[in-house]
Amino acid sequence: LKDLIHDFKNYEAPFLISPHDGLEKELEWSFDATQQAYRCDLWHRVLWLRNKGGVNRIAINLQRLQTRRIAVETTETRWMVGDCMGLMRECEGRLGAIERRLQMSQIG
């Protein structure tokens, strides 16, 4: 993910009107640092057309990464729910046994 962010910043840098060097972590992720204007003259549009494939590659790789993370989280959640259901069934069985013993003690 860090490599994808780094690659995107390299593609983005020529288009920024006031490029941010990102040396200070607080400034890099501040609201002001994210509100940047872009150059859109003819030369930069041509440059964008040349770099568009690389940006699309970054987007595809990011989508694959997100899909893998979602799959892992979904699988972990599924196993957790299964474990919880097993515990609930076990508790239900134990409560049933206690209830039967109580009924037997009331009869006897």
Describe the model.
α1 (2-12) packs antiparallel against α4 (42-107). The chain has one domain (2-107). It has helices at residues 2-12, 25-28, 31-34, 42-107. The protein is mainly α.
Question: Care to give the gist of this entry?
Answer:
Helix content is 79%, strand content 0%. It is mostly helical. The protein has one domain (2-107).
Give me the strand/helix succession: HHHH
Shape: rod-shaped
Proportion of residues in extended strands: under 5%
Give the uncertain stretches in residue-range form.
none
Kindly state the percentage of residues in helix: over 70%
- Average predicted confidence as pLDDT: 80
How many distinct beta strands?
0
Distance between the termini: 69 Å
Rg from C-alpha positions?
29 Å
Count of folded domains? 1
Based on secondary structure, the structural category is: mainly alpha
Total helical segments: 4
Largest sheet: none
List the helices and strands and how they pair.
Elements: H1 2-12, H2 25-28, H3 31-34, H4 42-107
Helix pairs in contact: 1-4
List keywords for this structure.
108 residues, 4 helices, 79% helix, rod-shaped
